[in-house]
Amino acid sequence: MEENQKFSIIARLKSFKYAFNGLKLFFINEHNARIHFIAAVLAIALAVYLQLSPLEWVAILAVISAVFVAEILNSSIEKLADVVAPEIHPKIKMVKDLAAGAVLVTALLALATGALIFLPKLF
User: Where are its TM segments located (predicted)?
Assistant: First the structure.
């Protein structure tokens, strides 16, 4: 938005369509998005079944969200890298590997959080 433009609630609301389109593209085009979605649905179903406390819900929803954010950023970086350097390039490979590593760290955090919350209630 340019500095001389006035703030508009309508314009801000319209900008949400880009965000929702991004989510749609993410779930349509990224295989890992569907895997994370299934894992999230299973975790939420288990959380409902086990009647988690509000604080446990916050932890579960936070790590689910973190995994999606990491995966969306990873996908974005990969798409941008493919445009910048369509040919194989060692520095682009490093960027892609680092972004994938961020997803892995986040997924492991989600797994550990789920284990700490769910396992004692299940056993």
Answer: 33-52, 58-77, 98-119
Q: Which CATH number is associated with domain 10-122?
A: 1.10.287.3610
**pLDDT tens-place string over residues 77-93:** 999 999 999 899 999 99
Domains of the chain, by residue range, sit at 10-122
What's the CA gap between 30 and 87, in Å, rounded?
A: 21
pLDDT tens digits for 1-47? 456 778 888 888 888 999 999 999 999 999 999 999 999 999 999 99
CB 99 within 8 A of CB 82: no
CA 102 to CA 108: how far, in whole Å? 10
Helix (H) or strand (E) holding 64: helix 54-84
Average pLDDT of the chain? 94
Residues annotated as catalytic (active site), given as ranges: 71
Token representation of residue 119:
């396992």
- Strand, helix or coil for residue 8: coil
Q: Tokens standing for 9?
A: 């609630």
- Measured CA angle at 81 (ends 38, 12), to 5 deg: 65
